[in-house]
Amino acid sequence: MDNRLLEMLVCPICKGPLEHRRIANDPKQRELLCHADRLAFPVRDGIPVMLEHEARTFDPETEAP
Prior knowledge:
single chain; mainly beta; N-terminal domain of TfIIb; 5-stranded antiparallel β-sheet; 1 helix; globular; Trm112-like; UPF0434 protein QWJ38_17305
């Protein structure tokens, strides 16, 4: 994902910063994490899907970075 695009994107809920991460068991898949809301937004075909109903919840204490 382009770093310039990542710098412009914010969480659609809290407007906070996002962290770009590869999914551990499938390195081709990526997601954008909002630590404040504990949501992971999928990136499909290089396009971030920034819809709340498409995001999954995550627990930062149990999921490795």
